[in-house]
């Protein structure tokens, strides 16, 4: 896979299959891989937060998780790339982890949602080896204990369902202490897979309207992100075009 510089961020041009294959190859070589998914929200955050921008720039793999990023790449760079969502990547990795007997760990969301996630995952992947789970509502002074519990489990894949920028800052701080090969943020994937929230219909996903589905489900929580931040992303895209 090659890197495409977009909004000062290095985006991988691989599709879902290539991304999963690259991750598995690097796990088999016992490498540590920090994977980041970038959507319009993450682009805006990286412009407002220099530390987050630096973290993404230094990540081992960066996928285009949002349709807006895919379209911006086509318009600005004249290059077509596939959207590689966190949830689709995670599901394919779980499938491969079951087949290859690779251990996984889930970090994030509420405890009751984690319990439902565990039921769903065990039904879908009955032979998957889950080395541990930890909710994401712990205090800052508890971070060290959480990291030590994860490290003791030695997961080959660590999936993190926490909000930005805390998720990125947590990984940046403890990456070398987590004792995991893959460290991957998956946004709200835990909530979707547990049934807490629904994912957009396939036609909305294909046509870039997944954000609208989410907005309709949680307008009060998401109006700022999907109206003001999306407008700012459009502004950044136009600004990049006229440079």
Automatic annotation (TrEMBL):
Entry-linked InterPro entries: WecG_TagA_CpsF (IPR004629)
Highest taxon of the lineage: Bacteria
UniProt keyword Transferase, yes or no: yes
Keyword Glycosyltransferase recorded: yes
A Pfam family recorded for this sequence: Glyco_tran_WecG
Sample GO molecular function, one term: hexosyltransferase activity
The entry's keywords: Glycosyltransferase, Transferase
PANTHER family registered for this protein in UniProt: PTHR34136, UDP-N-ACETYL-D-MANNOSAMINURONIC ACID TRANSFERASE
Protein name, as recorded: WecB/TagA/CpsF family glycosyltransferase
Organism: Enterococcus malodoratus ATCC 43197
């Amino acid at each position: 896979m090659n890197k495409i510089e977009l909004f000062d961020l290095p985006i991988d041009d691989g599709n879902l299959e290539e991304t999963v294959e690259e991750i598995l190859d690097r796990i088999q070589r016992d490498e540590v891989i920090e994977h980041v998914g970038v959507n319009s929200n993450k682009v805006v955050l990286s412009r407002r937060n220099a530390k987050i921008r630096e973290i993404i720039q230094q990540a081992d793999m960066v996928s285009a998780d949002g349709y807006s990023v895919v379209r911006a790449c086509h318009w600005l760079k004249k290059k077509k790339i596939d959207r590689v969502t966190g949830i689709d990547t995670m599901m394919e990795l779980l499938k491969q982890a079951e087949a290859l007997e690779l251990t996984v760990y889930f970090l994030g969301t509420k405890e009751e949602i984690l319990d439902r996630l565990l039921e769903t995952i065990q039904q879908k992947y009955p032979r998957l080896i889950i080395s541990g789970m930890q909710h994401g509502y712990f205090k800052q002074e508890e971070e060290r204990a959480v990291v030590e519990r994860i490290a003791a489990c030695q997961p080959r894949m660590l999936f993190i369902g926490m909000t930005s920028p805390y998720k990125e800052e947590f990984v940046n701080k403890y990456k070398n202490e987590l004792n995991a090969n893959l460290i991957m943020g998956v946004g709200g994937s835990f909530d979707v897979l547990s049934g807490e929230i629904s994912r957009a219909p396939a036609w909305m996903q294909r046509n870039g309207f997944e954000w609208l589905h989410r907005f309709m489900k949680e307008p009060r929580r998401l109006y700022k992100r999907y109206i003001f931040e999306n407008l700012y992303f459009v502004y950044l895209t136009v600004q990049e075009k006229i440079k």
